[in-house]
Amino acid sequence: MKIKNTLRQMRKDWVLYVMLLPGMIYFIVFHIIPILNMKLAFQDYRIIGENTWVGLKHFNVLFGSPAFKDVLMNTVIISTMKMIFIFPIPIILSLMINELRFGPYRKFIQSVSYLPHFLSWVVIAGIWIAFLNPVEGGVNVIRGFFNLPSLDFMTSKEHIRWVLIFSEMWRSAGWDTILYIAAILKISPALYEAAKIDGATTFQQMRYVTVPAMMSTVVTVFILNLGFFMNAGFDQVFNLMNDSVLSVIDILDTYVYRIGILNGQYAYATAASLFKGVIGLVLILSTHFISKRLTGKGVW
Amino acid sequence: MRNFSVMKSIIQFVLFIFVLAILIPLLNILAMSLSDPSKVSELSGLGILPKGFSLINYEIILANPLIVRSILNSVFITIVGTIVNLFLTALTAYVLARTNFVGKNIVLILLIAVMVFEPSMITEYLLMKDLGLLNSYASLILYKAINVYYLFILMRFFQEVPDSIIEAAKIDGASHFRIFTQIMIPLSKPALATLALFYGVYHWNEYFRATIYITDPSKWPLQVVLRQFVVSQDNTTLLNGIDGKSAEFLASLDFGSLQAATIVVAVVPMLLLYPLILKYFTKGAMDGGVKE
């Protein structure tokens, strides 16, 4: 009886299913099928004929390979450096921008600081490669001014990770202030009035009113960043890497690209991305639930 | 407040340095692209005014059939891609936002699964190969036809349309498809315009899928040509486009300036739309509350 009702309901709603069809076909073909096809990680790829199952062969090779260990370390190091050095910057910036009165100067600063977020990494890499040029690049002009020797940052193993950190900062620090500024704007002016009556200085107002009020946003953003820890920045590394620094900035995603797409070791590369995907999934799901618990906001 | 004017000045100064750090590299590239090739070596890496003035770099680039072709490819992919994105996203969002039907939960679970688990670039590539979409614009337009985050944004917007309007239409005998095309779409113009920008910026900046899916240079979008020329320092695309010019002419070129001009060309559409982008993206980011 229940099934009959369900079927009748479905027949009545046939228009809805027709409208849903294109979207569902899209999701199944372009998302679900590639996800299911990651079973390739347990197979050997054949150009003609069926792939053969090989169990954990690729994973054994993967975990035994020094190259993979390096890549994993690079991913962890670069992600951690980004967390430590980039995460606090937008918080400080938004506190500083908040101290500016509303007006053309504030608007100008905000508009300019958002701009790099909308440039592709190809464009940013082009700009940075020119800016870090050992001969006439801006950074070396400044170094020359202080009588420091010129440096070729792009090919220096010691410096290239800092290039990643600073270029990421350049691109996203301004944009990432948006959420914090939104949080600050929601603070009731009454709190500031009260603080002023109690004789709080600008700095004390910041310390005791603004910062505590934006903490929940800070926590949310931090937790969500943790969820994407395994994404150390494919686009960025892909565009800024070259042979001389590959060993220190090769991350999981660029590794998968190189061994998979360039060298055609499809199954082995799929095993590497399945490993990354599973770690990433665990991180995202756990951060989602932690974030929901703590702040009421999750990834979805 | 008054006693802390020193602190205010420090803050203003630090923010000024911050803005300079963003603007100088950008303006330097612009200045380089507009400089006279023979004088460009005098331009310091911090210079923001061109040395001499010449449009020769742009003339060379825009006379190059491969680069012009790539610009047209990018424009085509961006426009068609955005239209496909908007249509599919709106259609799906309508059904999920405004109606209840058997199986809706399954669909929502599917969407969340898609959002949290990314397929491997290898299996995506193999799928494109199996579908015979390699070297086609369709591969770039279809592979991200619906963005789940944007779908959720639009669903939220559709949910805010007052029920009474929909009910009235239903009483008048309007079908779902009619309600979608004649009520929801017109009422959602601001939201759709916002999404059009989101998707448009995305298509304009996309280079990676094109790098792996498209091997035929005549189908490359601008970002791929730019990448080859600027990041990989490979001049073949550019040189192949210059025919019948003397060796002296080639020697007079400054590749740094030509690269700069190509970068500028790739950024210009973004800057033209920047006021709109600012308005909608910042609002979207503030409302969304979740970082992408």
Q: Your description of this structure?
A:
The complex is a heterodimer of chains A (300) and B (292). Chain A has 300 residues and is mainly alpha-helical. In chain A, 73% of the residues lie in helices and 1% in strands. Chain A has helices spanning 2-12, 14-36, 57-64, 66-86, 88-99, 104-114, 121-131, 138-145, 160-185, 189-197, 202-227, 234-240, 246-249, 252-262, 266-295; strands spanning 43-44, 52-53. Chain A has a two-stranded antiparallel sheet with strand order 1-2. Chain B is mainly α and 292 residues long. Chain B contains 16 helices and no strands. In chain B, helix 3 (65-98) packs antiparallel against helix 10 and helix 12 (222-231) runs antiparallel to helix 15 (255-272). Chain B is globular and about 75 Å long. Chain B starts with a helix and ends with a helix. Chains A and B meet through helix 1, helix 2, helix 5, helix 6 and helix 7 of A and helix 1, helix 3, helix 4, helix 5 and helix 9 of B.
Task: Give the arrangement of secondary structure elements.
The complex is a heterodimer of chains A (300) and B (292).
Chain A: H1 2-12, H2 14-36, E1 43-44, E2 52-53, H3 57-64, H4 66-86, H5 88-99, H6 104-114, H7 121-131, H8 138-145, H9 160-185, H10 189-197, H11 202-227, H12 234-240, H13 246-249, H14 252-262, H15 266-295
Antiparallel strand pairs in A: 1-2
Helix pairs in contact in A: 3-15, 4-9, 5-9, 6-9, 7-12, 9-11, 11-15, 14-15
Chain B: H1 5-34, H2 56-62, H3 65-98, H4 104-116, H5 121-130, H6 137-142, H7 148-159, H8 163-171, H9 176-187, H10 189-205, H11 208-213, H12 222-231, H13 236-241, H14 247-252, H15 255-272, H16 274-288
Helix pairs in contact in B: 1-15, 2-15, 3-7, 3-10, 3-12, 12-15
